[in-house]
């Protein structure tokens, strides 16, 4: 068996990577549908049938876990709950708090920006609980992609994962450009000192940032070399960052004036929630920690402590920093670009701006590092299903890291960061994340209350009706909030519908599955509240972001219909035919066209 597996690994058309050989077409499109133009034409004609099947087909927990063998080598289990807490804080505490706090305090929320952070933090914490149960039960690198694939099917999972990857690339590019700005500030230069202006390029894309590219390259090397090494570096950066944050809080409160907290809500409740939708960017990144479940020693213990603990600490730190900033200066005078540095200048402590800049650099370095680790693991697991080329799923035997996925994702981040202005990047960040978090909460309800062969048709129909009412009432609430500035009557209708629909699940639909190791408390109320809050915050995001979101989703659909659908269909069908020797095909990552036990040899002419 071992020899046969080695042969499949090195010779199969579905193999991820062959030694002493350059990549060929079969490293990217090894499936039967792409063996010839005739096969591809036949596959395209079957697109409607295949699409219906993939939409209705759900994966299983065991299938997702077993898919790890498609990476040729397993990731090393080196992380514990302490690592995950620091990874969580490193992933989240970065550019958001140091850049967006001033912007939202001065333009949307005033001193009540602390409430905006609290609302976003509650939303993120509810999502953390949902992620935690999935990560414990399905400890693989795929994160939300794997969870959604198990409960909502391939199609929804692919669209969701594509948007998460976009969010990681855009978020990483935004942080890399912010890194350059704070680096210039640390050296006592203007924020745009190191940007190169090229007049021949379009506005917004004509200020090139070579330092952002260099930072991305260094982060990429670190992430490839070792996950544990990345964790140690994250320790150091995060500890320094926390020390600087403590300095800002203590020294800022020494220079505080309670008169600056009046008026507390100059922009009203609408400003608070509008700021919450934007400030959700400051919480983006914790989902990267869930992708590290595959490398965690004891997922049942470490993941709940790591994820929930890091989010509670982060939310507390954010709220205290927001209070400190608004006590140091009147909200009208807060600088939107470098709020804390300017605040210390205003109170006569100009020297403190260098400490703030150093702390911001350390924080953003951690965000980039954890983002590089997380986004590569998302792509790795997507490639294991062949929705993306299996070449991306290769895990290096020596480092135990997904080398190809890390290099490609960080290259994309560097390219976007090199050209694109920060303001353009920041507009699209929150919408993708809120969309994914809503889907994960929905998937958790499906997981608890629906199991094939267990749930009766009557209970299934009740669940579907209640879920549609929860989604519909949440969307109606968000739409009414966005369209009506002073109205309240519709809330008297939509909120009771949400409550009754959630109560309907609790009372009338029996749970079909109990968590084996760790479960989300207060089901269905907690995931239902997560759905409602995430959709409500989506309603506070500007129209242009939705247009960009729709454009990217359209691109994903084109790729899926022409490539991803057929590759994943062939892989699933081959797996169905070979259930008796599933482990063999998994180890070799082969896609056989004849149903034989061994994969066919690679066609050297391709």
Automatic annotation (TrEMBL):
Primary location group: membrane
GO molecular function, one term: L-glutamate transmembrane transporter activity
Topology of this chain in the membrane: Multi-pass membrane protein
Domain Cationic amino acid transporter C-terminal: 518-568
Gene Ontology annotations for the cellular component aspect, listed alphabetically: plasma membrane
Key word Hydrolase present: no
Record localization: Membrane
Gene3D superfamilies named among the record's database cross-references: Amino acid/polyamine transporter I
Protein name per UniProt: Cationic amino acid transporter 1
Organism: Nicotiana attenuata
